[in-house]
Amino acid sequence: MRILIEGARVIDPANTVDDVLDVLIEDGRIAAVGLERAARSALVPDRVLDARGKVVCPGFVDLHVHLREPGREDQETIATGTRAAALGGFTSVCAMPNTNPVNDNQSVTEFVLDRAHREGAVNVFPVGAITKGQKGEELAEIGELVKAGCVAVSDDGKPVMNAELMRRALEYTSMLKIPVVQHAEDLHMVGKGSMHEGFVSTELGIRGIPAASEAIIVARDILLAELTGGHYHVAHVSTAESVRLIREAKAKGLNVTCEVTPHHFSLTDEAVRSFGTNTKMAPPLRSQRHVEAIKAGLKDGTIDAIATDHAPHTIQDKEVEFEYAANGIVGLETACGVGMTTLVEGGVLTLAQLIASLTCNPARIFHLNKGTLSVGADADIAILDPTHEWVVNVRKFASKSRNSPFDGWKLRGEVLATIVGGKVVWEREG
Amino acid sequence: MSTAWKRKDLLGIQDVTPEEIELVLDTAVSMKEIASRDIKKVPTLRGKMVINLFYEPSTRTRTSFEIAGKWMSADVVNISASSSSVVKGETLKDTGLTLQAMHPDIVVIRHSAVGAPHFLAGVLTRTAVINAGDGAHEHPTQALLDLFTIRERRGTLAGLKAAIVGDILHSRVARSDIFAMQKMGMQVRVSGPPTMLPRYLDRLGVEVFDRIEAAIADVDIIMMLRIQLERQGAGLFPTLREYSKLFGLNLNRLKAAKRDVLIMHPGPINRGVEIAPEVADGPYSLILNQVENGLAVRMALLYLLAGGGAVNN
């Protein structure tokens, strides 16, 4: 099978390519980027994709999704979640372990991989639990998890509150060359809070979660990364102080990386005034000051990657009083548009920088052989229309769930087609 | 009355205009006259139904709405739903839709979750919703009766200065009072232990004092808040004893205040904790006036939200 993508602006940050070039796919791999006229005319492709005026880039890599299978197939399955990924231009997703049962052992990892192999529209990389049952008490069999295919460990949804245990996790994983991904929130400070502690929470009388609750854990863990030499990755960074601490840690040369979600750079706690439960997540939407610091962190490279924290919930999980609602929102199908609109149109990042934060940067953090258009690499590709304006409509989502705060948003920048291993897994009609 | 009431619901003071507040207070004046009659029942809301949907225990607010409705000849139904009905399975949405199918005109809701009345008001497209207290957010009818009581005593609101003392963090009365007083041109101060003063209060235009003596020095009204006994041991203050010593309003402390200062409290009071008995029962205490005026204000609101009509016939 030979596919030729013609005439697109090819942006491949891994190889610092940004030029109008043809891309040739052969047998599931990138065969060439840029073809001489003679080679082009000699070529007989099985399919030609006319991408003039469009952007071709590596398929996006999401370090943080909840596919909910096994256990909550009413919210999402590996089949529907990876289909949502494909619609969003993602060709690889890393599945968080807070399923039921928790992915804290080889057999769950194998189940996820097997299901993904048979039903998945895109590549699935499982993330194992740090501790057994994500209980924060004793280490899971991380060696076995990695052997079975896990690319990182995390107790996501639950912070590792015990500093000694976190130290051992960073130490132990250093021999396995995988990152420890922390959901950084001091649970004592979070208490019964359900939104950011700030002016809005003061007005609304909703119990607040102070920004310091995140930075305190980040600061502690950076000290532990320094002590152990382990790779520490902060999930969904949301505060100015966390960004500052990570910037300092990087300047020191520590092995510290982080990701941010699209909602944490595009929404503030002002959105909670609607009491719409799709503005409720952990960590919570922060105030403008924090959003500005997040943007500055993206701009100067302190924040490595954009990850969605795609968290599907059923209608009944969300159609309740704000304080009773489940945390989290879906994000796979809006990430690209929100990123292009808020960050590229907003003048924070160039399109190439945005693409880097969605491709080669996340791939590097989890050591995935993805996120590049190098010759010989897997042909995982997204084709984008960077200028097309569209309106988010949750009813059209491929995800089983509809819990998005972006419903009705007008976004600029749309995914037109997604190719995984040389196969077009999704194409926009018309 | 020049302004008409156009709002379907009363969810919070933050949403309403000073003109709407005036309208409620003016309407309540005529309602209070009814309450002073020998025969208190008027037929104004005959054939109308009010449902009191209370997810939190309440004596005074629920009773006040019930009596207000009955004096106006409305049919009043009380439902005490425990918050655990969420755990039992019926959602607020389903409870609301079920009630709406029985054709009430007004649902009065109290709920421990902030925003629950707003959620209900979105679900109930044909029924007026009155917020009788949502979490630590708002308690608009309390603020309106507080304003009514102050205006009745002082003749005016603009230019007056009030100090609200106590647990501002957990107080829906404090929030609604702050919004209401400011909308009517009053100045508001707050005082309490810093652990019970939420951050950024100053951005609301409120003056913040650590010491109660400084806060009450030259104000016209002191609003003492109930300190909830179960807060002791939750880490926000050491003991009720110490709280009472530092922030309790007693005769000695009152010497720092103006001689004609008005003492208010939304109740129920903890005698000897936030307020000494001699102060609660003293000459400037308006605590029982607040309760009495609550009836008039709630009659006015039921009347306005049920669509008006002739009041006195």
Can you give a write-up of this model?
The complex is a heterodimer of chains A (430) and B (313). Chain A is of the alpha/beta class. Chain A has 15 helices and 18 strands. In chain A, the strands form three sheets. In chain A, strands 1, 2, 3, 4, 5, 16, 17 and 18 form an eight-stranded mixed beta sheet that branches. In chain A, strands 6-7-8-9-10-13-14-15 form an eight-stranded parallel beta sheet. Chain A has a two-stranded parallel ribbon with strand order 11-12. In chain A, β11 (195-196), α7 and β12 form a beta-alpha-beta unit. In chain A, α3 packs parallel to α4. The mean pLDDT of chain A is 97. With 313 residues, chain B is α/β, with parallel strands linked by helices. Helix content of chain B is 38%, strand content 14%. Classes of the chains: A alpha/beta (430), B alpha/beta (313). Chains A and B meet through α7 of A and α5 of B.
Q: Give the terminus-to-terminus CA distance of chain A.
A: 24 Å
Q: What structural class should be given to the helix and strand makeup of chain B?
A: alpha/beta
Helix run count of chain B: 12
Total beta-strand segments of chain B: 9
Please identify the oligomeric state.
Answer: heterodimer
Unreliable stretches of chain A (pLDDT < 50, length at least 5) are none
How many E strands of chain A? 18
Roughly how many Å apart are the termini of chain B? 18 Å
Summing up helix and strand content along with how strands pair, one would put the structural category of chain A as alpha/beta
- Gyration radius of chain A, rounded: 21 Å
Q: How many helices of chain A does DSSP assign?
A: 15
Helix share bin of chain B? 25-40%
In the sheet with the most strands of chain B, the strands line up as: 7-6-5-8-9
Approximate strand percentage of chain B = 5-15%
Largest sheet of chain B: 5 strands, parallel
Low-confidence stretches of chain B: none
Q: Helix-strand pattern of chain B, N to C?
A: HEHEHHEHEHEHEEHEHHEHH
Percent helix range of chain A:
25-40%
Instruction: Tell me the greatest interface.
Output: A-B, 19 and 26 residues
Q: What is the 3D form of chain B?
A: globular
